[in-house]
# Entry
Amino acid sequence: MGIQQISIFLENTAGRIADVTGVLKDAGINLRAIMIADTADFGILRVIADDSEKALAVLKEHKFTTRTTDVLAVHISDAVGSLHEVLTIFDKHEINIEYIYASLEKTGQSAVIIFKIEDCKKAKEVLCDIGFDCIDSF
# Structure
């Protein structure tokens, strides 16, 4: 269900993100989305790769600590108020958003927004029933 996001736990030091992207690059893995949450001492790099299984294997081989999570990716119109519309729908259906970020993907007049939600299945059903384009893979 949904898209698999990989979280990589890193020390908050110069060059650590480049270490991850270098390992993925060398393995021929393309990133579709990326974001980082940080504290003073560590960061959580969240990525969506074009081949999650291969990315996980390569990261583990290089001793990175990882975790996977299902997330929901949705095409929304690249227009004022489009994100607000989705957030209002989630609120109406009591769907809690843990965090949100945008993808590197932009196609035509739409953007891809990534949602970490407690119940991805419910959120996807709600949005698809209304006519939103929920993405199953990149």
